[in-house]
User: What shape does this take?
Amino acid sequence: MSLALAPPSRPAPRVEPDALPCRNFDPDLWFSDSPAELELAKSLCGGCPLRLECLAGAVERQEPWGVWGGEIFEHGRVVARKRPRGRPRKEDLARDAELRTEAAARVEAAVGAVESRKALRLAA
Ligand code: SF4
Assistant: This one.
């Protein structure tokens, strides 16, 4: 089942700050200049119980940079990946286009899920 179609089954969990990966690993990973370190931060976010809320909040705040909710932000927008320095190859440009589409779908699904949870809380 697509995340976008999944019904919001419960409100956002209450989580101790120490349970957040970005509190338990070197926080510089989340703001690194290294594409590999940013990918590592993204993968660590994958196990975070607040990932959807974190991502939706970062989208709303238009975070200028860093990894939030498992996505890389640059200048307030989600980018599929941080490009290494140098001129990109044609294959990389094609792959980037695919990754951009996938990232946009993930962001849309996360924001939609969080909005649904908020609506349920307001209705309760
Ligand atoms: S999803 Fe947000 S709160 Fe969770 S580890 Fe990633 S940056 Fe931290």
Q: What stands out?
A: The chain has one domain: 17-123. The helical segments are 21-24, 35-45, 51-61, 90-123.
